[in-house]
Fold this sequence. Notes:
Layout: E1 6-7, E2 32-39, E3 42-50, H1 61-65, E4 68-70, E5 73-77, E6 83-86, H2 88-101, H3 109-122, E7 134-143, E8 156-165, E9 173-178, H4 195-210, E10 215-219, E11 227-230, E12 234-239, E13 242-246, H5 256-267, E14 272-275, H6 279-288, E15 291-298, E16 302-311, E17 314-317, H7 323-336, E18 347-349
Parallel strand pairs: 1-3, 9-10, 9-16, 13-14
Antiparallel strand pairs: 2-3, 2-8, 4-7, 5-6, 5-7, 6-18, 7-8, 10-11, 12-13, 12-15, 15-16, 16-17
Helix pairs in contact: 2-3
Amino acid sequence: MKHSITITRASQSKVSDLDFNNIPLGTTFTDHMFICDYENGQWINPRIEPLKPIATHPAAMALHYGQAIFEGMKATVDGNGNPMLFRANKNAARLNKSADRMGMPHFPEALFVEGLKQLVALEHNWIPPKDGSALYLRPFMYADEPFIGMRAATHYKFIIMASPAGPFFGKRIKLWAEKQYIRAAHGGTGEAKAAGNYAAAIRPTELAKAKGYDQVLWLDAVEHKYIQEVGTMNIFFKIDGAFVTPKRDGSILDGITRMSVIDVLRDKGYDVVERAITIDEIKEAANKGILEEAFGTGTAVGIAYIQEIGVANETIQVSNESPVGVEVNNTLNAIKTGKIEDKFNWMIKIENQLV
Ligand SMILES: *Cc1c(COP(=O)(O)O)cnc(C)c1O
């Protein structure tokens, strides 16, 4: 199906205001957004227009009942300045899984990818070329029907915004294994990229930060011992030469970086097992000296290397270096910038010229 997307260009681009050597995180947006409305059971009027505030009725249902979901992905450029997307079809499919859980309509996957492509083509001057930088893309959907009452909304908006992001030079992070608050329980919304999941994580994360940690390591809701994930990242451990990562059980986010890291690790000859992992098992591995690496994986930061994990009044020392994590991160970045062959067929090329 060919979608026709109406384009209204901004009269002047703000890209010349951006200092590409010093990009503020999450506060700069490009000139345009993609936007589409849902009414009478249909997505209508897909368009790209200048980014601007949107008038919202105070009774817009997303504000009261939380039907709001999002995605996150990046556009990069190859050595010739040609823009590319990383596995955007996976984000399109995941948005619809989130929509299912939250009683929201599907957004056509082909239109999701086409909207991204046309927006990125229009904004290609905003893609920071430096290694590890990218144009962060934020597709999201929310209920904008004005209505007081509990049911699925009948009006929604789907929008894609773009925000340039500099290279992430993260220090090694410290995690707090949380035994009081939970993120997700079986039957809950943990597998959906739903706005409310993040609202519920804010307070526990603030408390962990006050204790000197960077992020919360979420544990299962019943026994507080099975490891789920971290903030907006999935987690991997290297124990005695092999990798383990929590298996998908409906409570963790099905990360696209996670699935890509599994493929890259296996391609490099490592065993990767997806299974239930307890925090005690990690403590024991550390005590035996066989906990070799741990890292978080997600679109925003790529791979975040873990230094230590606080559990109750103990500290699990992980490692001071993550050689395999670094190697995998470099491989992913090299694929995203066309420096090595895209042997997994992950990259989606974008024509610079709009037709
Ligand atoms: C987005 C997200 C991830 C990472 O997913 P990617 O597709 O790799 O970016 C992991 N956990 C949570 C809770 C997330 O919101």
